[in-house]
Structures are given as structure tokens and as C-alpha cells.
Design goal:
By secondary structure, the chain is mainly β. It has one helix at about 95-100; strands at about 5-15, 30-45, 45-55, 65-70, 75-80, 90-95. The protein is globular.
Length: about 100
């Protein structure tokens, strides 16, 4: 594994869509979120890893998010207690390239 490269500025942009009663997205109901934080960037076995501590901006202050970018898609990793109870264990959410089409 490559040594993590620290002190990168990680910039995350997102939008949250609000639907009306008919399932239509209204632009005035779309919320945009953007945050910047420091994190690390690593390459391992042909995949790229971005890791950073969440801020209070989205309500997960102190949690660590790790994102794996690979040929087959993107995987988000969360530690126990970050987004669930300890008994749940670590959480992995994988989104395939096919699922990302049209986003």
C-alpha cells in the first residue's frame, strides 16, 4: 500500500432533491451542500482511497469517511458507531458503475 498523502483539501459537493406530490423535482426545492476539509489520498492495488473526518456541517462531526474509487464503482466505508450502533459493525455501501449511470 502506498503511504497516505496527507493534507489534501477534500471538496465535496452534493444536492438533495425534494419531490412534490407527483414525484417531480422542483429546482427551488433542491438544496445544495458543499464542504471542504483536510484528508488523505492513497493508492492501493489499483484503487484510490480518500479519507477524511466529517464536520458538524452535516451532523456527523468526528466520524471518519473513507471512499474507495475502483474500476467496479465506489465504496463508502464507515466505522462502528459512526452511522449505527456498535453491534452493527462497520458499514460498507457499494455503488456500481451501472448504478451511477445518469446521476
Amino acid at each position: 500500500m502506498s503511504k497516505p498523502l496527507e493534507n489534501y483539501i477534500i471538496r465535496i459537493k452534493s444536492s438533495i432533491d425534494q419531490f412534490d406530490n407527483e414525484g417531480v423535482i422542483r429546482e427551488e426545492d433542491r438544496d445544495h451542500i458543499e464542504l471542504m476539509t483536510r484528508g488523505s489520498f492513497t493508492k492501493k492495488n489499483g484503487s484510490y482511497y480518500i479519507s477524511y473526518k466529517e464536520t458538524q456541517t452535516i451532523g456527523f462531526e468526528g466520524c471518519t469517511t473513507t471512499i474507495k474509487i475502483a474500476e467496479d464503482g465506489i465504496t463508502f466505508y464507515y466505522n462502528p458507531y459512526d452511522i449505527g450502533c456498535y453491534a452493527l459493525g462497520g458499514v460498507e455501501v457499494h455503488i456500481t458503475r451501472e448504478e451511477m449511470q445518469g446521476l
